[in-house]
Amino acid sequence: MSNFKDKVVFISGSSQGIGKAVAMELGLLGAKLVLNGRNEKKLESAAEELKTAGVELITIPGDVSSYNECKRMMDEVIEHYGKLDWLINNAGMSGGGKLEHTHGDVYERIFGINVLGSIYLSHYSIPHLRKTKGGILFISSVAGMIGLPSYTAYSASKRAVTALAESLRIELHDDNIFVGVNFPGFTENDPQKAIYKADGSMGVLEKRSDVKANPLLKTVSRIVTQMRKKRFYGYSSAQGWFVRLGSRLFPGIVHLGLKANRKKIMDMQ
């Protein structure tokens, strides 16, 4: 029997990309899902796709960067399902640009979604997860292990998410609530994935032929395996594992590698 049979799983930012793909995988394993996103049209489109595959779910649109919205969303989960077994803090927004050229609003928006969204949802989920001995999984990034040039806002926010997970891991130990953090590398994205530009406007992340992206299904499989085996650190690619190991054991070499490839990294926007 699946570890996820009849488990109620709330996945923030699940109208597209990794979030939607993880939802599909868990739904096919018998989980009862809560899909979330700010764009109601995209959210309903994702829901119809999953329902067609036989997945049981509800949709709760909302902005995770709002403390009150997160309370409302969690209340709706409990009202409908009566419990919560898993929270996957997946909602995230990227943005590129050098620090001196990036508008302050970009930092506020990215931190609001990536960091405060994870904090607020976790805050409201803990009392319910305590009852089910459930779990919280944070989706960080390779940028959450080592800062990337021209991704200062994104890197700083994902490093904060990593620290949040590490803190909660100990804080919730006596409550028997599992906490984990996953570090996806460069992953295949939806064609219309939105990002913040340095001036604060919205843009679309362009696909680059010179950057090898990790297959989405491979990333999803490793995330689900991490949840099933309840491992604190999870790496969705060899890239993530090597960055983690290298930054701890050989930080100087990793720094040299970043300097040598800085133009390529900074152009990935």
The CATH topology turns out to be: Rossmann fold
**What level of helicity do the residues show?**
40-55%
- The tally of beta strands, per DSSP, is 10
Tally of domains: 1
Main β sheet profile? 7 strands, parallel
CATH level 1 class label: Alpha Beta
Query: How far apart, in Å, are the first and last alpha carbons?
Result: 43 Å
By CATH, the superfamily comes out as NAD(P)-binding Rossmann-like Domain
Number of separate helices: 9
User: What is the residue-mean pLDDT, rounded to a whole number?
Assistant: 89
- What would the principal axes of the Cα set say about the shape? globular
- Determine the strand fraction and express it as a percent band: 5-15%
Q: Report strand order across the widest sheet.
A: 3-2-1-4-6-7-10
Rg of Cα set: 18 Å
Question: Which structural class fits the helix and strand makeup?
Answer: alpha/beta
Low-confidence stretches: none
Element pattern in H and E: EHEHEHEEHEHEEEHEHHH
Task: Tell me which CATH architecture applies here.
Answer: 3-Layer(aba) Sandwich
Task: Describe the protein's architecture and organization.
The protein has 269 residues and is of the alpha/beta class. The chain is 48% helix and 14% strand. It has nine helices and ten strands. The strands form two sheets. The chain has a seven-stranded parallel sheet, sandwiched between helices. Strands 5-8-9 form a three-stranded mixed sheet, with no helix packed on it.
